[in-house]
Design goal:
394 residues, alpha/beta, Transcription Elongation Factor S-II, Chain A, Rossmann fold, 2 domains, 7-stranded mixed sheet, 17 helices, 7 strands, globular
């Protein structure tokens, strides 16, 4: 794209870069965790070990013959197969890594391991944790707030819920709690929440779409946000887009939606009533879950297929959650931090709200004075998970 001139595509080539740390440390750690989480037979263990060796010391291999999506990946991977994992675009390398991991564990192939989510143990452990119970209990206090404060509370919950990304925690060395949003170390560095709420107030209560990111502690506040929009009449209907198969460790699938709904519904107090409303909204058609193969494609949203584009173009607003969706929205390039969010997302159909906790190098739409302060702080603010953006393009 001409407008991308001068903005380098992110790769893992640069020593010490975030992308390189993901490829060199996060992915090997994940392979080992998946290998240890299941009693995989010898052939599956060998496939995982081979993937580990390839990603660290070999060159990128194609999918095995007969893969259901082999033709698509052959096209997407044509410029990259045979090269080092560290030399190709980071967005493509991450996406292909997860596709290869599913191949290694036999997720798509007929047999006893077909359809078994290799990340399920991690997701379930998080969903059953004490932190989720505490967050659901806090909804009793949120319900007592005035509407404007409730608006900000549920939007903030969806924003900071993105810190629960299991892949991010794996790369940190252990699953630990992220910084509290109330701590001085956390900050929203671009906040378009006010124009977002004005847009909904001025729009007819049509359909709101939400592009989900992670399951568990992130998906629960996403569902609560959708319930709030439906409950307050800002949305007549809501559509939740999830992944058609496991992806990026903790990305949400339909089964994760069901698990989260059960967790909310089984909770006491206000949370249980929200869960019952969400369940009724799903069975009554006011809330719909959708999947699309493009959700797992290593491509920017500018390249989305016509059917998905038509779907999103009819939305009152599309809420995009998380870091991966953000990189696909603006392009996974080393943009100047002051580059315009609206310009970078101009190809996306319809109004757009990005809720994102910063966990990779890409960042746009930040005011120059804020950017100067961040760059001068000495912090790894782009990748620490303690800074966030709420960016709206009407």
């Amino acid at each position: 794209m001409p407008e991308a001139a001068g903005a380098r595509v992110v790769t893992g080539e640069e020593p010490g870069s975030f992308a390189r740390s993901v490829l060199a440390r996060r992915h090997p750690a994940l392979i080992r965790q998946v290998r240890d989480a299941f009693p995989y037979p010898p052939e599956r263990q060998r496939a995982l070990d081979a993937l580990l060796e390839e990603t660290q010391h070999g060159v990128i291999a194609p999918l095995l013959p007969g893969a259901h999506d082999g033709e698509r990946w052959a096209v997407w991977g044509a410029p990259h197969v045979g090269r080092s994992w560290f030399d190709v675009p980071f967005l493509w390398a991450e996406s292909y890594f997860y596709r290869r991991l599913l191949e290694a564990v036999g997720y798509f192939r007929p047999g006893p391991w077909q359809g078994i989510d290799p990340f399920a143990p991690f997701k379930r452990a998080e969903l059953g944790g004490a932190a989720v119970a505490e967050e659901l209990a806090a909804l009793d206090d949120v319900a007592a707030l005035p509407l404007e404060a409730r608006d900000q509370a549920v939007l903030g919950g969806a924003l900071w819920g993105n810190r629960a990304d299991l892949g991010f925690r794996i790369s940190a060395g252990q699953p630990r709690e992220a910084t509290d949003p109330g701590d001085p170390g956390t900050r929203v560095v671009a906040d378009d929440s006010a124009p977002f709420w004005r847009h909904l107030a001025e729009s007819a209560p049509t359909t709101v779409h939400l592009l989900a990111d992670n399951a568990g502690r992130e998906l629960i506040p996403d569902l609560i946000l959708l319930d709030h929009l439906l409950r307050t009449g800002r949305a007549g209907k809501a559509v939740l887009h999830v992944k058609p198969y496991p992806y990026f460790v903790s990305d949400a699938t339909t089964s994760d939606v069901v698990d989260c709904l059960r967790r909310i519904t089984d909770a006491p107090g206000r949370a249980g009533r929200i869960g019952a409303r969400l369940w009724d909204a799903l069975t009554g058609g006011r809330l719909t879950v959708r999947t699309h193969p493009f959700s797992c494609a290593p491509l920017p949203y500018a390249d989305m297929p016509a059917d998905l584009r038509a779907d999103l173009s009819a939305a009152a607003v599309t809420v995009s959650k998380g870091d991966l969706n953000y990189r696909r929205l603006v392009g996974d390039r080393r943009w100047p931090g002051t580059a315009g969010f609206a310009e970078r997302t101009a190809a996306f159909p319809g109004p757009l709200l990005a809720l994102r906790t910063l966990k990779s190098d890409v960042a746009v739409g930040i005011e120059a004075s804020t950017l100067d302060a961040l760059e001068g702080s000495g912090e790894a603010w782009r990748t620490s998970g303690t800074y966030a953006v709420i960016q709206f393009r009407p």
